Amino acid sequence: MKKIAICLFLAFSGLVSAQENLTQTTIQGVLQGNQAQVVQLAEAFSEDQYNWRPSEGVNSVGEALLHIAGGNYFILSKMGFPPPETVDMMGLSKITGKDNILAALKQSNEFALAHITKVKTAKFSEEVDYGFAKMNMLAGLLAIMEHNGEHKGQLIAYARSNDVVPPWSK
Description:
The chain is mainly α. The chain has five helices and two strands, in the order ααααββα. It has a two-stranded antiparallel sheet. Strand 1 and strand 2 form a beta hairpin.
């Protein structure tokens, strides 16, 4: 009987813990799907296409990818999670070459996914000055997800303009 009680307690504790992080894990899951598609698009562009831009003054393919990476780090840094010491935030925009840009994007994606679940539910309502807006921490997590989705759409348009078919739609 004691073993059954312990097993039930552990199962219930796990369920409560999962419910406490439901929002974080949901955002993490949606973000992970967006990130995977952005990476698939990034891999589908040729090296030369990384310099393509729809018009002067608009981000190129490579610049859009680095902008996503920078956004991941920036928003999370405002929430108390500074980028790894190996990441030069001021130098991100200077990264060139498909392989280097892809590596920077993937590293920022992993960083974002790892830190979303570190935001405690009790801190969701804490206000943060993100520079572009004052919002609570939950809004910051949603902004990361939305930002990635926004630029996925941009990159789909870039891909179609360059006869690159998004890999998941073939």
